[in-house]
Amino acid sequence: MKKKKKAKKPAPPAPASSSDDNDGDADYEEGGERAEPQGGAVRRCTHCQIEKTPQWRAGPLGPKTLCNACGVRYKSGRLFPEYRPAASPTFVPSIHSNSHKKVVEMRQKAVRSGDPSCDLLQFIRRRD
């Protein structure tokens, strides 16, 4: 027997606000377009260099420095140099992945092959 889906109710209209009510956290302009940061500079994720994201998140360099994907991984402690969202302009399939499992495999393979970029990781593991 099939379940019937409930019809979604339309969202109530948002109350009109004046520009005086703006607290600086608004990332959207009228019409839902992304607002550029003050000064006219294009905002980029400090990890993957992507410019468009549904939400900017806090990273090691401060608030609103990481895209949504990188920010979620950073907060959970899984943001590694090998990780890149597939939409990132810096994504190179031979050295990056957007899958945590593949990133871990890549890091283990680099450790086994004696890649010097993993010396820091080994130092951190020994220290703990």
UniProtKB/TrEMBL annotation:
SMART domains: ZnF_GATA. Residues 1-43 are annotated as: Disordered. GO terms for cellular component: nucleus. Keywords: Activator, Metal-binding, Zinc, Zinc-finger. One of its GO terms (biological process) is cell differentiation. Residues 20-30 have a biased composition (Acidic residues). It comes from the Eukaryota. InterPro entries: GATA_TF, Znf_GATA, Znf_NHR/GATA. Residues 39-75 form the GATA-type domain. One of its GO terms (molecular function) is zinc ion binding. PANTHER family: GATA TRANSCRIPTION FACTOR (PTHR45658), GATA TRANSCRIPTION FACTOR 8 (PTHR45658:SF51). Belongs to the type IV zinc-finger family. Class A subfamily. This is GATA-type domain-containing protein.
